């Protein structure tokens, strides 16, 4: 079980990044959440099997069509035993 906190910078708001990430997370079978931040970045927590989290992180580094990811900062986090993947309000 791996849990990570991710900040994605670039043109990642207004391009469907959060909702497409939710689809990718559901497909991979990982839990967590994603939200826009006031500084224009996207913040997420992804939790699940190591290889599944790695798959989602690889997607996050590219994003959906129309997004431009300049940087994805990934830090390990303590597992929170989350279930499902949700899109949260802007922080």
From TrEMBL:
Gene3D superfamilies in alphabetical order: 3.30.70.100
Active-site annotation: 18, 36
Membrane-crossing residue ranges in chain numbering: none
Pfam families membership: Acylphosphatase (PF00708)
Keyword terms: Hydrolase
EC identifiers of the protein: 3.6.1.7
PROSITE patterns, per the entry: ACYLPHOSPHATASE_2 (PS00151), ACYLPHOSPHATASE_3 (PS51160)
An example molecular function term from Gene Ontology annotations: acylphosphatase activity
UniProt catalytic activity: an acyl phosphate + H2O = a carboxylate + phosphate + H(+)
Xref: InterPro entries: Acylphosphatase (IPR020456), Acylphosphatase-like_dom (IPR001792), Acylphosphatase-like_dom_sf (IPR036046), Acylphosphatase_CS (IPR017968)
Domain Acylphosphatase-like: 3-89
Family: Belongs to the acylphosphatase family.
Name of the protein described by the UniProt record: acylphosphatase
Biological source species: Microbacterium radiodurans
């Amino acid at each position: 079980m791996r849990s990570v906190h991710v900040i994605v910078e670039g043109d990642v708001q207004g391009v469907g990044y959060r909702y497409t990430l939710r689809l990718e997370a559901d497909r991979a079978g990982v839990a967590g959440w994603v939200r826009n931040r006031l500084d224009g970045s996207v913040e997420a927590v992804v939790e699940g099997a190591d290889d599944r989290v790695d798959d989602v992180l690889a997607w996050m580094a590219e994003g959906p069509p129309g997004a431009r990811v300049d940087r994805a900062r990934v830090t390990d986090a303590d597992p929170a035993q989350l279930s499902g993947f949700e899109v949260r309000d802007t922080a």
